[in-house]
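Risk register update: the risk of archive-format incompatibility is retired. Evidence:
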Amino acid sequence: MKAEWSLTDNGRTRERIISDLKADNIPVVVYGTGKFGKATAEYVISHDIPVSYFLDEEKYWAPGKSVTVCGKVIECLKRTQLLKKSESYNMLLGIIDYSLLCDLRNDFKNCHYVEYLDVFPSHIMKKTFLNENSNVIRDIYEELSDSESKQVLEAYLYARYTGDVEVLSSLVHDSQYLYDWKLLDLCKDDVVIDGGAYTGDSILEMKEYLGELPNRIFAFEPDKNNVEKIALHFSNKELEHINIVAAGLYCRDDIMHFSATGTLGSEISEEAEDTIITQALDMHSEYGNATVIKMDIEGSELEALQGGTSLLQKNRPNLAICIYHKNEDLVTIYKFLRQFGYHFYLRQHSASVEETVLYAIG
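Archived output:
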């Protein structure tokens, strides 16, 4: 595994972009008004570079819309409005999808500088983390079962460390699906735990992949805004295969604070006012026959796996576990799962430093 960059390129791409923006000495427009766009604007402003506008997609834009960042109210424009502006500006992609960069450069040819800047705090990996976990990271690299996995690991670490996601975005797995159901060996007889069912997108993929639904799916979704949407995608007959569990997966049965946003970003949070029920897989016998487990639960994956230790020991179900929510997930989830004798694969499912999935195949 190549490691020379781990000592030399800390923040290279982020620092280069800020340096270029300062040298150009004109305001910035940030494309995207969500949490990534706001983080981008805050980062730029903290380096004394003004942000003149946010750019919003037509479907999200509304007259008078603005975003407040660092105490400053910043106007939101749609594309047609920005294209009519005569003043000079640079543009930063404040949406997580790196693949949008090429289109932005084509659409805004008169813009001096269009770049992708991912400065979302949980996406930044520091040298201390790499150094402290270098031995485990090398172990992961050696245990990964194919060359694609090894390439993804190197590109993932590099992207998080330097902010340069170009190589990682080129390694998006060649699949029409959000998950590699072939690698999971999904079949119609499976009992599936879908942790983070959202509005049923993964279940729809299972149906498309198999031509029918698996034998039984336990769809865990704690966000009440999403729970009611799952059933809308399926017929009454199909719903006989799906148990919608309005709870979160965790290491214990409990009631916990939860931020319910109705989006993929809903998560357990001590600061949140809402509460949810959580369940541990080992505490409920109906989950004991699970043969496939998928988890995308906003950073609670390790705790949820720990809550299913007996199930993992008994069944060794095939797993698809998201490891991108926190830098340490790559290390801690691997260290926990290695005791069960799995073969490990790593796949990249988006053109960003998100949707990185560790597959553990029995």
